[in-house]
Amino acid sequence: MNSVMVGASSVEAGSHPQNHGLTDPATLDSGIRALVISSVGLLATFALQIGVVWIGRSAALLADAIHNLIDVFTSVPLWIAFVLSRRLANRRFTYGYARAEDVAGAIVVLMIVASAAAAGYVAIHKWSSQVPTTHLGLGMAAALIGAIGNELVAVYKIRQGEAIGSAALVADGQHSRADALTSVGAFFGILGVFWGVPWADPLMGLLISAAILYIAWKASREVFARIMDAIEPETVEQIERVTGAVPGVHRVDEVRARWAGHQVMIEIAIQVAPHLTVAEGHQIAEAVRRELFHHIPRLADVLVHVNPAWEGADPCHALTADDQPDSQTLPASKRNTP
Description:
It is a single chain. The protein has 2 domains: 25-227, Alpha-lytic protease prodomain-like, CATH 1.20.1510.10; 231-309, Alpha-Beta Plaits (2-Layer Sandwich), CATH 3.30.70. The protein has 8 helices and 5 strands; from the N terminus they run E-E-H-H-H-H-H-H-H-E-E-H-E. The radius of gyration is 28 Å and the shape is elongated. Strand 4 (263-272), helix 8 and strand 5 (299-308) form a beta-alpha-beta unit. Strands 2-1-5-4-3 form a 5-stranded mixed β-sheet. Helix 2 (59-84) runs antiparallel to helix 3 (100-129). By secondary structure, the chain is an alpha/beta fold.
């Protein structure tokens, strides 16, 4: 059951719905569908590009093909995370398995960095070996097809990720966008060879590696912020505004909120009139919960702590002189003396 904190104790929320902390299966299905569709498209693009690389020996196009293949592999931890998110909370994982999605996002970022290293290695090897690039027209055509295909996949993933609030899926979409940029780089690298500049191909491979690292840094900011329990400040302000407008709430004492996967979890402390009964304080807390569920997108659960709005010092929380141990009765080792 959901529990509402009243004063220093918790009160069971009776017959209130028990599914607030669960992920909507339709949301997870949408994420999994985005992964399957995009993976099929990326595998087709990889197969086309690797065939052209085998014939034409383009370092830039090989770097692009490697990045496409790694992008398919990043879908695996995301798929596992979405499947785990279906599982209910238990005695060991009392918050459920939504955090698996954030872990998968971190894996995506690490794989983007790995693809940058692989692309850089291929470019350096091509530069040192001076193996000529051939079948230039076919290579440029494959690069353009890769750019278009990857950008379509990127747009699809990012839109789906933003729709369900998944930073991990958005990061995977940014990875696909990096693929599109590398395809463009491969095109210009082969075009440089066509214009009589043979080192343009490995040079573009190195530039592609740098571009991938930039995208990894950009994707990591949101992913690792969520792992560190970051939340958008405007969301906190909205929580305070919605809660403060509930009748019976004198003041909002504290707000804590965090993302867990693509869900938001909130803990909030409010002040109510001190003469209210436990039941009346509970009703106000439930009113706060209803308003927050109505106004905060992708909210999974809310824990409301109710404090009495005392005038002056809070007699329930303040420490009195009688509560303090007599320093003369303490052992010498624990006395606060110089």
